[in-house]
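Page header: ASSEMBLY MODEL / two components / 784 residues total.
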Amino acid sequence: MKVPKGFLFSTAQGSFKYQDRDDLALIYAPEGAVPAGVFTQNVFQAAPVLVAKKHISQCNLINAILINAGQANACTGEKGIQDCEETLRLLSKTLEISPEFILPASTGVIGEFFDLKKWEKAILELRENLGKVDVGKVARAIMTTDKYPKLVSKCLTLDNKEVHLLGLAKGAGMIAPNMATMLGFILCDAEVDRSWWQSCLVEAVETSFNRICVDGDTSTNDTVLALSSGKVKGSFCEDDLYRLKKAVKEICFELARLIVQDGEGASKIIKLTIKKAKTRQDARNIATTIATSPLVKTAFFGEDPNWGRIVAALGRSNASFDPQKIRLFFGDIEVFGCGVAKLEDIDVWLQGYMQKKELDLVIDLGAGEEEYFILFSDLTFDYVKLNGSYRS
Amino acid sequence: MKVPKGFLFSTAQGSFKYQDRDDLALIYAPEGAVPAGVFTQNVFQAAPVLVAKKHISQCNLINAILINAGQANACTGEKGIQDCEETLRLLSKTLEISPEFILPASTGVIGEFFDLKKWEKAILELRENLGKVDVGKVARAIMTTDKYPKLVSKCLTLDNKEVHLLGLAKGAGMIAPNMATMLGFILCDAEVDRSWWQSCLVEAVETSFNRICVDGDTSTNDTVLALSSGKVKGSFCEDDLYRLKKAVKEICFELARLIVQDGEGASKIIKLTIKKAKTRQDARNIATTIATSPLVKTAFFGEDPNWGRIVAALGRSNASFDPQKIRLFFGDIEVFGCGVAKLEDIDVWLQGYMQKKELDLVIDLGAGEEEYFILFSDLTFDYVKLNGSYRS
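Prediction written out in full:
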């Protein structure tokens, strides 16, 4: 896997929560990189989110992202902010950069305070390992309940130069016993304009990380950061920029898909597309209502083509449509339309289809021109097991 | 259990879905009763809902409620309406009353059509059994995935006369493999004014059936009907009416509580109270967001005092509050306030409390004067098992 130029990586064992693996990671751009960031909309924002937002708004270039797994540093008040800043100060000293040029990202149990002694030790180890580990180790160090690391790369030729993109993410629902936490990092080596880079990330997040649903719960820590080192300089034309944006979108989408695939306990990925909605808001409401319905999610787990549950969720979504015009498809097969069932032997027709790991669900509202999709996982025994178990 | 005067009951075996039990029930008021009704808000409304709404709007007195379990007669289009009307016609012939004076209520699998031959036979049996069965048999006949029948009665003295109230309900989440379906019936023998009776039911539903959450899914069939036979005549004073309304509310609340207790797979009932909200809408949004969060629900199943998940759900509820002013209590114990954890050893403090079957959760928003409560169940293995299994 080719890595964008201008970045070094490191990991260390902080033992914040996990005892037998690296749980601290560093993405380092010695000569700085153009940053972009998208953060959780939750009212309760974790200390690292508040600090990262501040730094990203103040600095044109960023040198490092410091990520820990196991502790979210959320709901920790003023002390949480101070602790976060202290970890950046420790890193800034050892790297000889300003703390403002570092973005923090944390994931894990909320409400707990950092043990700064552990951080001191781990940051020394981070310094020692700098440049000696590959990005795969970073992807593994940021994992919490993830079953596997999530890493995607892309290479494209712009203005006759090779540009590399790399994305890594963590997320699987939530960390036991705490909350949904997804972190995503996109690295690139093209020379980009800062505001274009930010809009590029915002657009990519909108059609990827904003379109996935494991359990409908958002967290205090959700963060997606993008850094572009500018090592590949060029006079990129409009078409180049279009292709670069497309590549960022594809990387984010693939990472998002991997998160749903790895969703806690998930056995299926369902892509739900809402077509011909009157408004985009309607389409989104319907998609979210269906994707978070426990009845719909358990039916997919049971491989039961239970369209009644989907129609019922649709009916309580507060969207505007004519029930008589609704058409519902499993794959290419229409199961419901004009207010009634379209198939008599639905179980026979759909048995094979329901056994697939990735399914397509399409709802045509016949009400307008808007379209929206969402990827969601099913609700399984393992979900309950993972999230019903005691903290340990 | 004393039954309000003026009502007769019957049940029969229709074999609509269940083969070894009664699944058709009749509540019969030979001399008529004043009706009131509250129905599902779902856009997809089942045939019996549409027909019952029509009849209730056209008739001042109602003679009968005809209820079947196993088939919802929902998403069945015009044929579903005709079938529903045909069942009423069959009953009206045998009882020698007008079909308009009968209210239908169905619960069960959606999308399937009635087999009218089965209905013909079952309605004859219903006629034969009329007056020979007690109301307990009716409560059992309307069950679907319910583990037990739900029946509550009350007696009060108004204007020196004994007034009897009786309520029965079915609901446990949804019928496998279909949707949440709750039906409730309140019977009374006091002489009441029709519009007062309707407002009394609306108020009672608002603080009972509208305050419960098993999985957040509403159905095409939800129906609560109240009939008062007027057999106990009197000049009820304002205080009498106040007490009668209070009794209807208590009956509905107790039935609602029984539904949550019997919630599919439920092992706990949690009463969540939102205090000092700026607006009622805020309080309701917060209560619903928390009560439907899979993370919160699985934590209660795991007896884990996982306040981080509750705070995270609160933070995505779109309600207006100052995060610093939030106080969160498990029973009397404050676990979160001023933005930070209030207890260091929360597991020690709350271990005993979390093992209770009924828990109290209180959130003080410190933002205003509005208050709202909701009763919800936890999310368990058995929920997934019940709802993930194939139709059979």
